[in-house]
Structure formats: C-alpha cells, structure tokens
Amino acid sequence: MKRVINFNAGPAAIPLEVLQKAQEEMLDWNGTGMSVMEVSHRSKEYEAMHNEAQDLFRKLAGMGPEWKILFLTGGASSQFFMIPMNYLFGGRKATYLVTGHWGKAAIKEAKHFGPFDVLTTENPDGTFTRVLRQDEIKIDPSSTYVHMTSNNTIFGSQWHYWPEVGKVPLVCDMSSDIFSRPFPADKFSLIYAGAQKNLGPSGVTVVAIREDFYNLAQEQAKLPTMLSFRTHAENNSLYNTPPCFSIYILNLTLKWLLNTVGGLDKMAKINEEKARILYQAIDNSDGFYCGPVEKDSRSQMNVVFRLATPEMEETFVKEAKAADIIGVKGHRSTGGIRFSTYNANLVENVKKAADFMEEFRRKHR
C-alpha cells in the first residue's frame, strides 16, 4: 500500500488511525451487519453516534449545553448566505472583518440581505499579507454581529489573537484552523467550519450557535425550510437525511483528537512545531524562498511562499510529487507554493518536507 505525504488544502489528510477504523467497520458497523452508509438515520444506532459527535465537539471546544451543534451541508460557502439570511432582517446591519479571499466571498453573499461595514487589510493589488490590528477595529455597537475568518487558506495568514468587539456577537469562519488550537468559546456567538480540513471528510459543515444568539434568528416561517437555523436546531440536524458517513468520520476524528492526541492544548504544540520547522526553512534560505505574509500574521495551517519564477515553482511541484509529497501547488488565484499542515499531517511529514526544500534549494540555487 502506498501512502504519500499529503499537503492538500482540502479535502485534506485524515488521520491514518481514523481511516483504518473506518476500513475495519466498513461492512459491519456497530454490530448492525451494515455499513454506516446503509443504516437508517432514524435508527437508534445512528442517532447515538450523531449525538456523541455533538457531545465530543462541545467537549473539545469547551462549550456547555447552551451551544447548539448543527451538522449541515453545502460547505462553509453556504454559511456565507445562511448567516445573513437568518440574522440580517428588519433593518439590522453587520460588520465584516475581511483579511482574505473567503472573507470577501462572505460579504458578496451578505449584500443580498442587509447593510454592513467592512474593515479590511486588502492591498491595492487585491492580495492580503496580514490580519487586522486591534487598533484598526472600530465596531458600530448597533451591529447584529461581527464576522471574521480565523485563518486564510489562500493567502496564508491567521489571527493569533481574538479581536475585542465590545458587546456585539462575534461570528467566526474557522474552517481551516478549527481544533488546531484551543480558543475561548465564550468570546463567540456562532462558529462554523467545513469538515474537510481538520475535522474529517468533505460533505458536512459544523455550525455551533450559542443559545442567546440563536434566539435572535429569523422566524422559521419566514425562510425557506432548509435555510433556517431553527429547522435544523429543532430537529437535531435530522430534518432530512444528513451526510451520515461524513458525520461518522467526524466522530472518529474527534475521538482521535481527544484520546490519541490528548486534546487541543497538545494539538496546538504539535502545530506550533510544524510551523516553526517550515518557516525556519523559508527564513534560512537566503531569499531562495520568500514568504509574503507579515511574520506576526503567518498561518500555522497554510504555509505559503514564492520562488524566483513561476517556472521554478512548477519545477518544485513536479519534483515534490516525484518525492511523494503532493498538494503543494498554491491556489490558482495566487500561484506560489502552499503547504497545508492540518492536524493529520504529523511532524515527521513536515520534517521530510523541510528536508526536501533544502535539497531543492541546493540543487537549483
């Protein structure tokens, strides 16, 4: 069996232990004589696993029972319109902190539903090289919520502090760094994340809403049934058939984080070490590799850098693939190189990648 070192940005690597468990249970899950993909989502076996995944999510996040955990479809991109659809009505407004591509995508959808202020670090050429400083964040206290993206997968920046926004509810797209580190749940009113980076496979999006913020959502009768948070919360995300297999792998991944890794504090130390190794390889390359992001905004999840020419970058991607290191080509909108070092990528893999970088530099400088 061949296993490569997978730095894809998403769908991304899944812990080997999780894949092996799923393989073991593929034909007979939980003694049912069926795959989890064949079991009714109305069965007691499925519902127990579904509820366990919610409880595991709360436990890892440090959330109490006042948090509603929803398993939805449509990716984080669907939350770009579901959140304003559920909250921007009756003259309400919002504030968006835009520090990358997906923040821009969120405001593109929000404009269909209500007014909002935008605070951004976008450069004149359309790139982003840092997150906002606290002194740049001025929030209209009448805002219904403040929206932020904690990690920017394309441009390789990340918030290393959580902004103070007064008493306004804070909403966060954590798709690409959720559970890579601890975070203060009590600072947030809603968080969401597509699973395909740190939580498991594509197909399920986790939305966590604190009860006080949930109570501000639009009435169910005034929205399309499937686009109302109330529909999914009142039916335990079982109003229709959920993405059962994706939720099953999510469940196994959460157990891996809790039991094998030992929780988010330990995961954070592992991710800090991985980032240190790669950024050291960039900074010690005498300019051969150039990281465009300001150092205090560098992402620990998506390490991006450039080489002297696009042609050299193509050679890097080609030779990396020959060395069984895949998924390192930067996003099509930016070019360059990107290592996505999500939770399932072990320190050992990152060390091999750094060794490859040094070997490539010696060969091509």
UniProtKB/TrEMBL annotation:
Entry cofactors: pyridoxal 5'-phosphate
GO biological process, one term: L-serine biosynthetic process
Binding residues annotated for L-glutamate, in chain numbering: 42
Localization of this protein: Cytoplasm
Catalytic activity: O-phospho-L-serine + 2-oxoglutarate = 3-phosphooxypyruvate + L-glutamate; 4-(phosphooxy)-L-threonine + 2-oxoglutarate = (R)-3-hydroxy-2-oxo-4-phosphooxybutanoate + L-glutamate
Cofactor binding annotation: Binds 1 pyridoxal phosphate per subunit.
Residues that hold pyridoxal 5'-phosphate according to the record: 76-77, 102, 153, 173, 196, 240-241
Statement: the UniProt record of this protein carries the keyword Cytoplasm: yes
Primary location: cytoplasm
Enzyme Commission number: 2.6.1.52
InterPro entries: Aminotrans_V_dom, Pser_aminoTfrase, PyrdxlP-dep_Trfase, PyrdxlP-dep_Trfase_major, PyrdxlP-dep_Trfase_small
Pfam families: Aminotran_5
Keyword line: Amino-acid biosynthesis, Aminotransferase, Cytoplasm, Pyridoxal phosphate, Pyridoxine biosynthesis, Serine biosynthesis, Transferase
GO molecular function term, any single one: O-phospho-L-serine:2-oxoglutarate aminotransferase activity
Domain of life: Bacteria
Subunit structure, as described in the record: Homodimer.
HAMAP family the UniProt entry points to: SerC_aminotrans_5
Family (UniProt): Belongs to the class-V pyridoxal-phosphate-dependent aminotransferase family. SerC subfamily.
Function recorded in the entry: Catalyzes the reversible conversion of 3-phosphohydroxypyruvate to phosphoserine and of 3-hydroxy-2-oxo-4-phosphonooxybutanoate to phosphohydroxythreonine.
Protein name: Phosphoserine aminotransferase
Source species of the chain: uncultured spirochete
Gene name of the encoded protein: serC
